Amino acid sequence: MRKMIAAGLAALASAGMAGAEEPVLNIYNWSDYIAPDTIPGFEKETGIKVNYDVFDSNEVVEAKMLTGSTNYDIVVPSLEFMARQAQAGVFQPIDKAALANYGNLDPKLMAIAATNDEGNTYGVPYMMYTIGIGYNRDKVAERLGSDTIDSWSALFDPEQAAKLQGCGIALLDSPSEITAAALNYLGLDPTSEKTEDLEAAMALLAKVRPYVRYFHSSQYINDLANGDICLTVGYSGDILQARNRATEAGQGVRVAYAIPKEGAQVGFDMLAIPSDAPHPENALKFIDYFLRPEVAAAVSDHVFYANVNARATPLVAAEVREDPGIYPAPEVMDKLYTARPHKQRYDRALTRAWTTLKTGQ
Amino acid sequence: MRLRALAGWLRIEGRAAVVAVPLVWLGLFFLLPFVVLAKIAVSESVIARPPYLPIWDWAEGVLNISLNFGNFQFLTEDPLYLLAYLGSLKMAAVSTVIALLIGYPMAYVIARAPSNRRNILLMLVVLPFWTSFLLRVYAWIGILKGNGLLNGLLMATGIIHEPLVILQTDFAVYLGIVYSYLPFMILPLYSTLVKLDEALLEASADLGARPFVTFVTVTLPLSVPGIIAGALLVFIPAVGEFVIPALLGGPKTLMIGSVLWNEFFSNRDWPVASAVAIVMLVVLVLPIGLLQRTQSEKEENA
């Protein structure tokens, strides 16, 4: 007991010191999205105790951030979500002067991120992902005659989708991502909010809807690895994790990931500091630590997502760096598009159309 | 004399205290959240923190109150909400009937079992609660999925040759709800059946009634309170169920829980989401309140 009081007094004393924050940092990140030694390395070096919480959906983060007083110092929403939350005053601008390693970031990718975060004000990119097609090579070869998919037509052409129906098609339960892919396939602007474009995308999706077994945003990882489904639209890193699990399981399931030739959505998950963060200085220290090439490279090696750190790329393991599903080739990069935050009216129309698509109501 | 007065006072105070506990509980955990919900339901959604406008503001000595009932009106404009309410009610009603059909015989057998075995049987009914609800629903995924236990068994025995699609269907949702809530049906049924006076059954038999007639004319009517309690305990949570249809259901399963989720998370429209929740509460509370009133009137008359 006496020890506890002493510790409490010590904590009070250190909190009372001018300007110094208590050595604590509260991070809220996606699940399975960090290397095992990232946090211990930071704690050891700085003496800051990290409380690490995880989430698995942007929507849940947004609901928490909009409620306020979350006590988090760093959250990692996707770019288009962060952009809207920043409009609501949820985040504080990043003090770039406090980040010695900020210059390591790839200017080309930062320019893409800046389309949703003007001047890269509120966020530092954590990892980059694409949304493409994951598939079971052998089952696809059996039904389509080739064990490689390179086009969205495997999904959006009703004839091909019908052939794959028996072995299972899954889609992300995320209307904006799937609708953007459909718009892009139709040659329309994937960020369009026009009613007629939404109708065209839904008409395309309705034709293949009978062949879709389910809509879910994470179930497909296991199902693809186990061979329960043979085609899914999903996040690059998730599908590559499914590929690795399938290899480890040794059941003969071969999973592959494709960024279709028509193009795909590229996204960024952003390190952002809430405006009411209790430890903003420690948050900046962590962001600067993450911007070191070796730290970012270790995370990419572990989670199979590309980081946005130009100096980290040579340090990333060859199998990750040379995987075109993780680090797309430059000519593929040019075909990628980013999502934009929607107007609320459009979100409502989109959700409604999506419900119609799924339930027929 | 003074002592007696004190005792009387204590008795009244004691009664008040006993009544106060559930009242405070209801006030804190039902009424207060409901008021908060009602407040958000008549607000307007904005991009801000929190994402809705305050319903009153105080400016230069003037109190402005603005209530937006458009959210409730909005629910009538799109048939989606009505269909989702009906879908949920149907799902819950069918599940309740199935749970009753399975639970009644189980409760009956337990109530008729020798008293030393009853406790073991009751414990077996409650045993699943020792595992987290979520884990048990996940276990059903493992059983029902294409490469799962059930399909494996059926294929190994040669009954089927292609795996059946059971997961992601309405059938899986019924299964999940009935499985999860069955104990809530069995326990109240058991407690009414176990109190049933066996002399009544003997009298019925003595008067020449066959077992089936005895069951229909004696046992069943006397167990109605248990049936009602069990049915409510299954029906009410099943209507608002979100987890089971989300994990086991298919894309076609339209229930109010998922509509609510969409309004809150996908549309970020907290006011409309709150309105959906309030309507759901009214849809549930009104019939249940009426049922209880007729029930207690009946008991008073009896």
TrEMBL record, chain A:
<feature type="signal peptide">
    <location>
        <begin position="1"/>
        <end position="20"/>
    </location>
</feature>
<dbReference type="InterPro" id="IPR006059">
    <property type="entry name" value="SBP"/>
</dbReference>
<protein>
    <recommendedName>
        <fullName>Putrescine-binding periplasmic protein</fullName>
    </recommendedName>
</protein>
<keyword id="KW-0574">Periplasm</keyword>
<dbReference type="GO" id="GO:0042597">
    <property type="term" value="C:periplasmic space"/>
</dbReference>
<dbReference type="GO" id="GO:0019808">
    <property type="term" value="F:polyamine binding"/>
</dbReference>
<comment type="similarity">
    <text>Belongs to the bacterial solute-binding protein PotD/PotF family.</text>
</comment>
<dbReference type="InterPro" id="IPR001188">
    <property type="entry name" value="Sperm_putr-bd"/>
</dbReference>
<dbReference type="GO" id="GO:0015846">
    <property type="term" value="P:polyamine transport"/>
</dbReference>
<comment type="function">
    <text>Required for the activity of the bacterial periplasmic transport system of putrescine.</text>
</comment>
<dbReference type="Pfam" id="PF13416">
    <property type="entry name" value="SBP_bac_8"/>
</dbReference>
<keyword id="KW-0813">Transport</keyword>
<keyword id="KW-0732">Signal</keyword>
From TrEMBL, chain B:
<dbReference type="InterPro" id="IPR035906">
    <property type="entry name" value="MetI-like_sf"/>
</dbReference>
<keyword id="KW-1133">Transmembrane helix</keyword>
<feature type="transmembrane region" description="Helical">
    <location>
        <begin position="82"/>
        <end position="108"/>
    </location>
</feature>
<feature type="transmembrane region" description="Helical">
    <location>
        <begin position="171"/>
        <end position="191"/>
    </location>
</feature>
<keyword id="KW-0472">Membrane</keyword>
<dbReference type="GO" id="GO:0055085">
    <property type="term" value="P:transmembrane transport"/>
</dbReference>
<comment type="similarity">
    <text>Belongs to the binding-protein-dependent transport system permease family. CysTW subfamily.</text>
</comment>
<dbReference type="Pfam" id="PF00528">
    <property type="entry name" value="BPD_transp_1"/>
</dbReference>
<feature type="transmembrane region" description="Helical">
    <location>
        <begin position="270"/>
        <end position="291"/>
    </location>
</feature>
<dbReference type="GO" id="GO:0005886">
    <property type="term" value="C:plasma membrane"/>
</dbReference>
<keyword id="KW-0813">Transport</keyword>
<feature type="transmembrane region" description="Helical">
    <location>
        <begin position="120"/>
        <end position="141"/>
    </location>
</feature>
<protein>
    <submittedName>
        <fullName>ABC transporter permease subunit</fullName>
    </submittedName>
</protein>
<keyword id="KW-1003">Cell membrane</keyword>
<keyword id="KW-0812">Transmembrane</keyword>
<feature type="domain" description="ABC transmembrane type-1">
    <location>
        <begin position="85"/>
        <end position="291"/>
    </location>
</feature>
<dbReference type="InterPro" id="IPR000515">
    <property type="entry name" value="MetI-like"/>
</dbReference>
<feature type="transmembrane region" description="Helical">
    <location>
        <begin position="212"/>
        <end position="236"/>
    </location>
</feature>
